[in-house]
Amino acid sequence: MAANYTALVALVGRLLISPIFITSGIGKITNSESYLGYIAASGLPFPVIALVGAIVLEIGGGAAIALGYQTRFVGLILALFSLLTALVFHSDFSDQNQFLHFWKNAAMAGGLLQLAAFGAGFASLDGRRSRQRWMVS
Description:
Elements: H1 2-30, H2 32-41, H3 47-67, H4 71-89, H5 96-118, H6 125-136
């Protein structure tokens, strides 16, 4: 019973955290000019490369988290991405909106670090590979 509960909670957690990355990546595709301007205004070099990298990371990483694929590694990468994004784009604490976005990103990083530490759970592609290895042994 406890294993079923843990698997379900891990699955729901992954399904709740992944859409923010996937929808953000899609938004960057559909509104790329605005995002390019925002990235350039932040002072980051090579805004086009940064935008393409963010799109790939957000859509690919969000999908990987949802499916539970390479969850520990992807969770760590997305946690670092979330913290970097918070520091670069949301560090104007005199602006209440930026202050809240900073802490939203920090909270997401915290959840992603939990995925990095504990993995995707049984109901995942990672869990499927673990079950297959266990059954072969």
